[in-house]
Amino acid sequence: xxxxxxxxxxxxxxxxxxxxxxxxxxxxxxxxxxxxxxxxxxxxxxxxxxxxxxxxxxxxxxxxxxxxxxxxxxxxxxxxxxxxxxxxxxxxxxxxxxxxxxxxxxxxxxxxxxxxxxxxxxxxxxxxxxxxxxxxxxxxxxxxxxxxxxxxxxxxxxx
Length: 159
Ligand code: 5CA
Known about the structure:
8-stranded mixed beta sheet; globular
């Protein structure tokens, strides 16, 4: 229950509800730091995990978020075309600073700053998906439709 959540998971749960999404954050005893760990902890397919990957625009220093299926690898060249500049994987410090959450717990929305977001089209195949919820032990269940609404993200072919 939400009052038992650790601070970063509670911060995310509160922000999500404030934005009108009634999804419940669950904290798990096992680590959910990576997509395979998260899938194992939930008992779902790795492809149903919505991983939040932070990239950086090399020219503008802007943060760019890709919500990708846990089964896929993001093609940086395709992402670069979408944002019209070369991109690189953000380091842990940059990801933390721009999102407000540590890698392994970065949720798809409710970040420190508003971040341009792209959604891997493969996530739309699933009725239910799971995403990180603030800590490397916290997840929440959502639908692809929720994901699109809460991120304002552009669906793209990005693997
Ligand atoms: N909670 C899980 C499932 S939602 C999760 O957050 N998975 S994740 O894939 O979105 O986050 C882990 C990702 O962070 C890894 O795929 C990897 O791309 C990235 N990552 C891990 N360590 C580092 C690091 N030191 N610097 C930059 N990125 C990293």
